[in-house]
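Go through this:
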Amino acid sequence: MKTNKYFFSAMGFLTGTLFGISIILFLSFSNAPSGAAPAAQNGAISTTVAHDYFNGYMSGAVPYTQVIKGFTIDKSQLTAMNSILGENSALTGFRIYFGKDNSGNKVGIVVGVDNSGRDAVKNSIYGTSAANLSPCPPICDVASPITLGN
């Protein structure tokens, strides 16, 4: 009986901690304008624009010191990956960089990766809305049987 009491207390504490971290990270992007991302963020972009988006993100990025358990990719990133793969079926994967546009909107920069592990910038590069683009932690399914077991 005591074991259950301590287990539930620990789980409550961990859940509260993860929720608190999630709120803090959410608020760190709260200065961005609300509403849908501009249409230009869901299409092909140049390496120059991708670089500008990346620098926009890096200028305010905070070092992350936890182990990454997973990663959320939304439909716009998947659509971009399928478009890039349609251009070059020899690609071995994809990379998504974090970015911010000039309006402060989060942007996912999707690029193919060749068999040497290099960005395939001769193919299209896509800028996508990134409302759901996030590593886990901090944005995780804390009740997932994948991470909790049974």
Q: What stands out?
A: The chain has four helices and six strands. The first strand starts at residue 43 and ends at 45. The chain has two domains: 1-30, 34-140. The beta strands are 43-45, 70-72, 93-100, 106-113, 125-129, 134-136.
